[in-house]
Amino acid sequence: MASPGKRLKVAIMGAKGYPIVYGGYDTMVKELGERLVDKGVQVRVYNHRSLFKDRPKMVNGIECIYTPAIEKKSLTQLTHTFCSMIHACFSDVDVIFVVNSGNGPFGVFSRLFGKPTAINVDGLEWLRPKWKGFGSKYFYWASRMATKFYDRIINDSDEMRRVYLEEFGVDSMVIAYGANPKENVSAKALKKWNLDSRSYFLIVGRLVPDNNADLIIEGFLQSESQRKLVIVGDVPFDDSWANRLKGLKDDRLLFTGYVNDPETLAALYSHCYAYFHGHEYGGTNPAMLKALGYGCAILALDTPFNQEMLQNGKYGLYFQKSQDSVSELVSYSEENPEEMRRLIETSRQGLTEKYNWDKVTEKYIQVFEELAKR
């Protein structure tokens, strides 16, 4: 427990680190960590040592600890969190905040050491196609262990809260991810690919099966659209599934690979004709939040999570999990430009207070302060 007059000290672990931003968890660590510091909280983030050539101790007021891991595809994240958890348990931090349900079992150590903990469990990892067999069973078991060992379970959507209640009989607190809406973004960065504003559809995300890029690409190619389909993202390893997609030959397809420059990514979002969102498993998705914040017309896979984010169709249109459905939605969107303009003009209104980073931070501070008093 933080003593009177002592600043609250929170350790954050389970992501790649700070200030690196590759995905949703990394974005949350950056946005939340920086705001916590501004609110007077001492923040420590555990970074993957192998990802950081330079290892400063302090970055923007955040203490950075560089812990090792076994650098194998299926072991890197888990062994990194294990090392980080042991280090944090022997330290003076008041609260340990962990992300990723795969780290659920490590809560046993914080419990043994009497360190208060919270975990953001995110999506339905055990259903994702990339985790077959043992991997799927592990994530289901790890998610169950999280509900037993951590003091507070945090989900990022009401639908995920329902899932955890049904699957594990445990209630959780809902704190969504935040968004940073942006208007009047220049189209200058699009010249790199000879793209014009509204001349393309867009996909943003890792090239993995559960994001359904294959379904969207093949459905798009089935349509008669003369626009391009721009696919932003890749996988950081050699993968036959991703390689097959990247090998498709059609002048309408443009694979950009990773786009790390935020201004370029903002331009791609802001000037697309429509943004395709095929993410299937998970709660509040950061790519969808970006699409709302940049004013995109959103075409989303019909899932309970996407229905929740788009408020049951108020801020987007849906397709079913079939190529024909994607193709039909492409045709419909091009035949109804007025409706697409309406979605572009209203999408930022979908970012209610629930998705405001400052409000999100206030909720996390409330959780951390309550845990520190135990």
Automatic annotation (TrEMBL):
<feature type="domain" description="Glycosyl transferase family 1">
    <location>
        <begin position="191"/>
        <end position="349"/>
    </location>
</feature>
<keyword id="KW-0328">Glycosyltransferase</keyword>
<dbReference type="GO" id="GO:0016757">
    <property type="term" value="F:glycosyltransferase activity"/>
</dbReference>
<dbReference type="Pfam" id="PF00534">
    <property type="entry name" value="Glycos_transf_1"/>
</dbReference>
<dbReference type="InterPro" id="IPR015393">
    <property type="entry name" value="DUF1972"/>
</dbReference>
<feature type="domain" description="DUF1972">
    <location>
        <begin position="9"/>
        <end position="179"/>
    </location>
</feature>
<dbReference type="Pfam" id="PF09314">
    <property type="entry name" value="DUF1972"/>
</dbReference>
<dbReference type="InterPro" id="IPR001296">
    <property type="entry name" value="Glyco_trans_1"/>
</dbReference>
<protein>
    <submittedName>
        <fullName>Glycosyltransferase</fullName>
        <ecNumber>2.4.-.-</ecNumber>
    </submittedName>
</protein>
<keyword id="KW-0808">Transferase</keyword>
